[in-house]
Design a protein that fits this description.
five-stranded parallel sheet, 16 strands, 389 residues, alpha+beta, six-stranded antiparallel sheet
C-alpha cells in the first residue's frame, strides 16, 4: 500500500530498520527529528501517515498528535517503550490508530499496523467524499423537486381555470366535480352553450397521471375551442356531430405523437328537437340517464381514442324526458367503491344516482370523497340535468 510516511524518530538504527523494510513495500519515507520539523512537513501536506516515537527527548509526541487531530484524521501509529504505558493509553485516546512497543523486532508488524491505519483512513475519506456527493445530489434534487412542484402548482392553477363554471341554459343545468389524484389531473371536462338551441359537453379520461396527461387535456380544450369557433364562423359544423369530434381528437392525438390515449364521452343536447346526440370513445363507466321512470346506463361502445388511427366512432341519438339528469363519471370513481366486483360497483353506482337525485356533490359525500386526503385515481363527475327528480 504505497503512501508518504512521516517518521518521527531520532534513532538511526530504528530509522534504518524501518526505512529498509517499508521502502521495499512501496512506502516513501520522510524523517523528522523534532516537533517543528514534523509540523512543517505536515503543514506542507507531504505526509499521508505518521509513525511517531513517543519517547524522544525534548519532543512532546502527545502534543503533536493533539495538533494533528485538530485538523485531520491522518493515520498515526505510535511506538513507545513499555515503561511509559500511560502515554500510550493517552495517545490512543487522542486518536492514534495503533501502538507498537519498542524495539520493533518484526518490521512486518509495523507494516501491518500501517496498512490497517491507511485502510481505515482511506475508507473514511471515501465515505466522506461519498457523503458530500450525496448531500450535494440531495440538495440539487430538493431544488429540482421544489421547482417541479412550483411548475405543477402553476399548471394546476391553469388547468382549473380551463374548467367551466356551472351554467344554466334554458332550464338545463351543468355542474361538475373534479378530484385529482395528483396536482395535475388527467381527467378533463367541459360544457358550453353553442347557440340558442344547443348545449355541448364532454368528459375525458387521459391515460396516466400528472403533467404529461394534463398536456393532453390542453389539447382537448384547444380542439373544442377551434371547433366552436369554426361553427360560429360557419366554416364547419363538426362540433355538433359527436362522432366527428371523436374522429378529430383521435387524429390529432396520433399526430401529436404524445404516446397517450384517452376515453371520452361527448354529447350535444338540442333543445329545439329535445334530443341528446352522443358518441363514446371507450369511456367507462357509461353515463347514467336518470328520469322519473328510473335510471339506466346509456348504450354505446367503441375503441379508446389515440390507440388506433383507423378507429371508428358511432353517433347515438335519444329523446329526452322533460325531467332528467345525465350523470357522467371517470373510472376513478370505481376504484374507491367498496364493492368487490365490477358488476356490483355498476349496480351500486346506479342506485347511488337515484338516491342522490342526480346531485354530484351528494354522490361525492356518499363515497366519502371530501374526507379523503388523497384518491388513487382522478375522479371526475358531470351532471347535465333539467327539472326536479
Amino acid at each position: 500500500m504505497a503512501a508518504n510516511l512521516l517518521v518521527i524518530d531520532d534513532g538511526a538504527i530504528q530509522q534504518s530498520v524501518i526505512s529498509a523494510y517499508l521502502s521495499e513495500h512501496g512506502y516513501r519515507l520522510l524523517f523528522a527529528n523534532n516537533h517543528e520539523q514534523a509540523l512543517r512537513m505536515l503543514s506542507d501536506e507531504l505526509a499521508e501517515a505518521i509513525i511517531c516515537d513517543l519517547d524522544l527527548p525534548g519532543f512532546d509526541g502527545l502534543e503533536l498528535l493533539r495538533s494533528v487531530r485538530l485538523t485531520s484524521d491522518l493515520p498515526v501509529v505510535v511506538i513507545s517503550s513499555s515503561e511509559i504505558m500511560e502515554n500510550v493509553v493517552q495517545a490512543l485516546r487522542l486518536g492514534a490508530d495503533d501502538f507498537l512497543a519498542k524495539p520493533i523486532t518484526e518490521p512486518e508488524v509495523l507494516a501491518h499496523a500501517l496498512a490497517k491505519a491507511l485502510q481505515r483512513y482511506r475508507l473514511e475519506e471515501e465515505n466522506k467524499a461519498y457523503r458530500e456527493y450525496l448531500e450535494k445530489t440531495n440538495t440539487e434534487l430538493r431544488r429540482g423537486l421544489d421547482e417541479l412542484r412550483a411548475d405543477q402548482l402553476a399548471g394546476r392553477h391553469a388547468q382549473q381555470r380551463m374548467l367551466p363554471e356551472s351554467i344554466s341554459f334554458r332550464g338545463v343545468k351543468c355542474e361538475h366535480r373534479l378530484t385529482p389524484s395528483l396536482l395535475l389531473s388527467g381527467d378533463f371536462l367541459d360544457y358550453f352553450e353553442l347557440d340558442d338551441d344547443r348545449l355541448v359537453f364532454y368528459l375525458a379520461d387521459v391515460s396516466g397521471h400528472g403533467a404529461s396527461s394534463a398536456f393532453v387535456t390542453v389539447l382537448l380544450k384547444n380542439l373544442t375551442y377551434r371547433l366552436k369557433r369554426n361553427f360560429n364562423r360557419g366554416s364547419s359544423d363538426d362540433v355538433i356531430h359527436p362522432a366527428r369530434v371523436l374522429h378529430r381528437v383521435n387524429s390529432e392525438l396520433h399526430a401529436s405523437e404524445l404516446d397517450k390515449h384517452l376515453t371520452m364521452f361527448y354529447g350535444v343536447i338540442c333543445l329545439k328537437e329535445n334530443t341528446l346526440h352522443y358518441s363514446v370513445g371507450g369511456h367507462f363507466p357509461m353515463p347514467i340517464m336518470l328520469t322519473e321512470k328510473g335510471s339506466s346506463y346509456l348504450d354505446g361502445r367503441a375503441m379508446p381514442i389515440g390507440l388506433f388511427p383507423e378507429a371508428e366512432y358511432q353517433e347515438y341519438k335519444m329523446s329526452l324526458e322533460q325531467n332528467f339528469s345525465l350523470l357522467m363519471f371517470s373510472d376513478g370513481i370505481l376504484e374507491i367503491m367498496p364493492e368487490s366486483t365490477l358488476n356490483d360497483k355498476e349496480e351500486a353506482l346506479l342506485a347511488m344516482t337515484i338516491e342522490s337525485r342526480g346531485d354530484v356533490n351528494a354522490i361525492a359525500e356518499a363515497l366519502g370523497i371530501p374526507a379523503r386526503d388523497e384518491v388513487p385515481d382522478d375522479i371526475a363527475m358531470v351532471s347535465v340535468s333539467r327539472g326536479g327528480l
